[in-house]
Specification:
Length: about 650
């Protein structure tokens, strides 16, 4: 391996300056990833990567791998514009996605737009179609690329477009199209050609990677509009424009039910997707020749197969992955399977290896490799020369920091069920009688995995033992484990979280007087709901962007198209009140610290404000820290740094150590 690019990029990847804090660890762990997103040019000679700037901004850098000199060509302030990704349309031009959050009378709205820009920073153009002044609605979604048209030399792509009809009074030129369609867009000239006529019931399109749309998903019409909990999929046979039924997916309050298509392989004439197999998600292929022959490609009896591995400009399907104690990848492509085995030997300390991007001919691969004690690095592998070159570290701020090993464990719940999770102990610790934190994940339809986690590693660095339980209600372990979901089945989910705290005490890992709980999103909900079952187990509660009232969460979606999905997910019954922390503040004994961005689209800030108000009215110790112009993810290095420092100070004061 060679490291010749690292020196040239060292100055560029220096950590942005953060506000002064009491401990340096907060600045190191609070800094956003030094490489937020990265891609390889079609000719394999250049990379483009997004790097954070001070606060919440970001810059796009281009590196010619022959000279290894990074050149910044695009900046975003982060308020409100955010640079979310950039990919190459040709070896000289890129497409970038811009994301914005804007407050409105019905809540916080998200907007996306796409731009094209040359690799030298010139010829910047907006690719998203512009709204007419006569448009009868606003366009939030600026489109997504569904096909990079590898066979096209002019940089054209297939893009979705949300068409909005126009006021027709006084004109015959008004646009009457309505709904989601597909256009072929020349990223240089902005010339647009209709590929799929928009349909008001269309929800999704999938192409074959060579310019032909083969799958369409549609929402069924109901008396109230369109069913947001179900998609009916149609497909086309090769060379045909006619649509034929493929299947349906129902997704409301639990795991999706039905075949969910993800990718089309043109040469094999099949579509790959996920469906249930004996209670766990599995990967299937279905023939698109009219027979709909269905084949099981990969399944596990213990966990869900939940990710499709795709590479190159055609997004060729080459494998699938699943998470047991660690994320595992099974390659179908013989060459990549052999390469994977070789990389395991070349990078023995970095077992989490993935293909990030590839040149057009796939002779050069952009790879990522990481572990629990290494946030990860990006590599370039040249198949012709067999050279593996390290390009960039993902978190250069932590280069000199000793990180803690993450150990897969399981502990018994009250009913005897073994709950899987991960235990992180402070580096050099004997693991006994420590201040400790239980840190439930967000979602609730999510799960923690083995690897680097900036929050748990920060607390381990500060001397805490950290337990991350994959409680019942987590994704990845099958439909029986998911239960009804973490809200409807909150007593089971939160009960498992609490049992994790009791296990830490029983094992002698945690000092009972110094046990706290920290969570973000659903994890924050679980942290605030935990004392409803056991008021005195945790001595301090920290919640970031938490759900605090299920009825309020439901009402936040009232004016949006996802209302029926949210309504079904939350459900109706006694659990709505019993499972809402803001309705049970009398059960809370420990001091509470909350953080929330005032432009959170996932969980409105009024939920934290309600919780804080009710705790104060009840005479309970509480503090709410609000962040201006930030959403659910608090994507600001200075904010995260200050938050980590305040969390640590609060926990030490509350647990008296």
């Amino acid at each position: 391996m060679t490291f010749w690019i690292l020196g040239a990029l060292a100055g560029v990847l220096a950590a942005p300056q953060a506000a002064p804090v009491a401990n340096e660890a907060a600045a190191s762990f609070g800094a956003r990833e030094g490489v937020q997103q990265i891609s390889l040019s079609p000719d394999g000679n250049s990379i483009a990567y997004i790097q954070p700037t001070a606060g919440r901004g970001a810059s796009l850098y281009i590196v010619n791998l022959a000279t290894a000199q990074p050149v910044g060509i695009l900046n975003s302030s982060g308020d409100p514009d955010r640079l979310s990704y950039c990919r190459w349309s040709t070896s000289k031009r890129l497409i970038c996605g811009i994301y914005m959050i804007v407050p409105s009378g019905i809540g916080v709205l998200g907007f996306t737009r796409m731009i094209g820009i040359d690799a030298d920073g010139k010829n910047l153009k907006v690719l998203s179609a512009r709204d007419s002044s006569r448009a009868l609605d606003i366009t939030q979604n600026g489109g997504t690329v569904i096909d990079w048209l590898s066979d096209s030399a002019d940089g054209s792509v297939l893009m979705t477009r949300q068409f909005v009809p126009e006021e027709s009074t006084g004109t015959r030129l008004a646009n009457s199209h309505d709904g989601l369609g597909i256009e072929r867009v020349d990223t240089n000239s902005l010339k647009r050609a209709m590929v799929e006529t928009p349909r008001v019931d269309a929800a999704e399109y999938i192409s074959d990677g060579h310019g032909t749309v083969r799958i369409m998903g549609m929402r069924p019409k109901t008396a109230d509009g369109y069913d947001q909990t179900k998609i009916n999929y149609l497909y086309r046979k090769p060379g045909s424009r006619d649509w034929s039924p493929l299947g349906s997916v129902k997704d409301s309050s639990g795991p999706a039910n039905g075949f969910d298509p993800y990718a089309v392989d043109r040469d094999l004439n099949v579509v790959y997707g996920f469906d249930d197999n004996a209670g766990h998600m599995a990967l299937y292929s279905i023939a698109l020749d009219g027979t709909l022959q269905r084949n099981l490609v990969l399944a596990r009896p213990d966990v869900d197969v939940d990710d499709l591995i795709r590479i190159g400009r055609q997004q060729r399907v080459v494998g699938a992955s699943y998470a047991t104690e660690r994320r595992q990848v099974e390659f179908f492509d013989p060459e990549l399977k052999k390469l994977s085995a070789s990389l395991s030997k070349a990078l023995p300390g970095l077992p989490l290896v993935s293909v990030v991007d590839a040149s057009a001919d796939e002779s050069r691969l952009l790879l990522f490799a990481g572990s629990d004690v290494d946030p990860g690095r990006y590599y370039l592998f040249d198949k012709k020369t067999r050279k593996l070159e390290e390009l960039l570290p993902k978190r250069p701020q932590l280069a000199k920091t000793t990180l803690a090993t993450v150990k897969p464990i399981s502990f018994p719940a009250a009913d005897g069920t073994q709950i899987p999770g991960y235990l992180t102990l402070p580096p050099g610790s004997d693991g006994k009688n420590l201040p400790a934190i239980v840190m439930p994940h967000g979602g609730p339809g999510d799960r923690d995995e083995w690897g680097f986690d900036w929050l748990s590693q920060y607390f381990a660095n500060r001397g805490y033992a950290v337990l991350q339980p994959n409680f019942r209600g987590s994704a990845g372990y099958g439909s029986a484990w998911f239960k009804q979901n973490g809200f409807k089945s909150w007593k089971i989910a939160v009960g498992d979280v609490n049992d994790g705290g009791r296990w830490l005490i029983k094992q002698g890992i945690a000092d009972p007087a110094k046990l706290g709980i920290v969570g973000w999103s659903y994890g924050g909900y679980a942290a605030l709901q935990s004392p409803v079952l056991d008021p005195r187990l945790f001595k301090a509660i920290v919640a970031v962007a938490p759900v605090t009232d299920l009825e309020t969460l439901r009402s936040e979606s009232q004016s949006f198209t996802n209302y029926y999905r949210v309504d079904a997910f939350i459900g109706h019954g006694l659990h709505v009140r019993e499972g809402s922390p803001a309705q049970n503040v009398d059960r809370i004994v420990a001091p509470v610290l909350m953080f929330h961005g005032d432009r959170d689209r996932n969980v409105g800030i009024r939920e934290s404000r309600m919780m804080a108000s009710r705790l104060k009215e009840a005479g309970k110790p509480v503090e709410l820290v609000e962040f201006h112009n930030l959403d659910h993810y608090l994507d600001d290095s200075n904010v995260r740094t200050g938050m980590l420092d305040k969390m640590d100070t609060f926990l030490r004061a509350s647990m008296k150590f």
